[in-house]
Amino acid sequence: MERIIECVPNFSEGRNRNVINAITDAISSVKGIRLLDVDPGEATNRTVVTFVGEPEAVCEAAFRGVRRAAELIDMNLHHGAHPRIGATDVLPLIPVAGVTLEECAEMARCLAKRIADDLDIPTYCYEAAALRPERRNLAVCRKGEYEALAERMDCPEEGPDFGDRPFDERAARTGATVVGARDFLIAVNFNLNTTSTRRANAIAFDVREKGRPKREGGKPNGKPVKDADGNVIMLPGTLPGTKAIGWYIDEYGIAQVSMNITDIGRTPLHVAFEEVARAAAARGIRVTGTEIVGLVPKRAIIDAGRYFLHKQQRSTGLPESEIIRIAAKTMGLEELAPFRPEEKIIEYLIQPESSNKLIDKTCRGFAEETASESPAPGGGSVSAYMGALAAALGTMVANLSAHKAGWDEKWEIFSNYADGGEMLLERLLGLVDEDTAAFNRIMSAIQMPKGTESEKQAREKALEAATLYATEVPLRTMKAAFDCFDLCEAMVEEGNPASVSDAGVGALAARAAVLGAGLNVRINARDLKDREKAAQLVAEAETLASEACRRESEIMAKVNSKL
Fold it and tell me: Which pLDDT belongs to residue 352?
């Protein structure tokens, strides 16, 4: 799985475009970084930058951005409306895909230490990366802002987590940086069929975690009730990990509940939508649509689409694009403006604009590429694609069966089959390109220099590793394609009788995929120096091929008995 994190540093400069550009250039200088957004604010004298990439690249880019900001921003001269404590004020790392929050927290601590050690900038750690419980709150780390930093650095209990020392000229110039890790924050507005800000606020108070003040007599205009310490007692709302207010948007002529979902693990997007809709309905108001502000992680939209499909008792084993479309339609993501997944979903934004992947070609394009004089793609990629077609056919029958009239009580059984089929489909599609990449790796090893003895040894080692990889990839294709037999057989036995031939074709394609990939295992294994390993891989392949023939024969017998 691809590993992606996001970083959203806030720099204390929002007016000098040259300084801002120099900082973002430093960030972009790291290979693999995708700069998504640069948002300067003149009144706040602050710029929020958003970039993403693999964890190692993001941490390096963040370090370079902090270093450049320290060189160009003098906090002695800084004034702005937003709270701040340093040239790089706050620096959160956010998991997007394939990375946990705990892993981001550890990365943030390492980054904070590196900033302090290498750049001599004091650093505090906040949110999930906090080293002290009270410092999870950003406001605690930034207490008193830059103006209080000198006093805090001279106080043992208030000093930074890394780079603690007496306040000096260097610290006066750079200030401190607060580094942390938090989950992805979704900023979302729920559109209401009312113009009343008061009603929108009431709905927001119903649902937000903080809730509303408890009032005497339970009356809206009653005095707030306070505890023994004089603090207003709050009645919590229904959605943990959320902040919300109501407002009126003149541009659209409607009121909205504006919400930040700060913990999408506890309150997913679709749960927030459903709860706001419920609270609105209780007040005679309807949620007419949803506006996502900024970017959203793919999992939030996919989870929403799967939730609504499940609620409709429809199969969730659908292509990703269809699940996203269901989510967009159900939550009204297109009410105010078109919802373009490629512009709003963070994983899609960081994909290369052009792709040379075989699986992104048209059917004709793939066939013509295979027919060309280039040796790749070859039988291995074609075998993987045949396996993908086997998975696709089995999944199709499962989806048709889940929606068959009179079979409503079985929908979830077939939905589970379709989910498994979609996973097989993705595995095999990935192997289409991986097989060609394995061949190219062998060609690269062959082209390595061999003028000296050390070069010969390096080349031989690389060639053996590439050949082993090129043998293991089609073996993985065999295993993935073999797994399609269970799906196809289940669909022959239990699925929509009208589609039994489709499940049969799936079994035939699975057999062809297993046998075809097996040929690639054998031909590549011939070139392995490690003959014991080669024999092991070939033996495994031959067993799979034999079993594939048996399974296909059994399934086709069942198909023919039903035709």
Answer: 61
- Please indicate whether residue 435 is annotated as part of the active site: yes
CA distance 85 to 135: 14
What digits encode the pLDDT tens for the residues 61-98? 999 999 999 999 999 999 988 889 999 999 999 998 88
**Lowest pLDDT segment from 98-102, 108-112, 228-232, 316-320:** 228-232
Q: 82, 120, 419, 486: which one is catalytic? A: 82
229 catalytically annotated: no
Asked if 499 contacts 556 with a C-beta cutoff of 8 angstroms, the reply is no
Q: What is the DSSP string of 79-113?
A: --SS--SBSEEEEEEEEEES--HHHHHHHHHHHHH
Whether residue 127 is predicted with pLDDT greater than 90 in this model: the reply is yes
Residues 6+ apart with CB under 8 A from 346: 4, 6, 36, 52, 96, 295, 296, 297, 298
Encode 349-387 in three state secondary structure: HCCCCCCCCHHHCCHHHHHHHHHCCCCCCCHHHHHHHHH
**Comparing C-alpha atoms, which of 255, 496, 317, 517 is closest to residue 397?**
496
What are the distances in angstroms from CA 51 to CA 30, 67, 192, 326, 349? 11, 16, 32, 28, 11
Q: Note the pLDDT tens digit of each residue in 375-413.
A: 878 999 999 999 999 999 999 999 999 999 999 999 999
Residue of 108, 491, 89, 549 whose CA lies nearest to 315? 491
Give the pTM: 0.77
Cα–Cα dist 359/373, whole Å: 19
pLDDT for residue 353: 56
161, 206, 433, 435: which one is catalytic? 435
CA atoms within 13 A of residue 506's CA, in its CB half-sphere: 32
- In angstroms, the CA 254 to CA 286 distance is 12
Closest CA to 135 of 85, 60, 74, 68: 85
- Burial (CB < 10 A; 0-12, 13-18, 19+), residue 517, is buried
Instruction: Find where tokens 């053996």 sit.
Output: 464
d(CA 137, CA 538): 58
CA dihedral 4, 10, 11, 12 (to 10 degrees): 180
Q: 458: burial class by Cβ within 10 Å (0-12, 13-18, 19+)?
A: middle
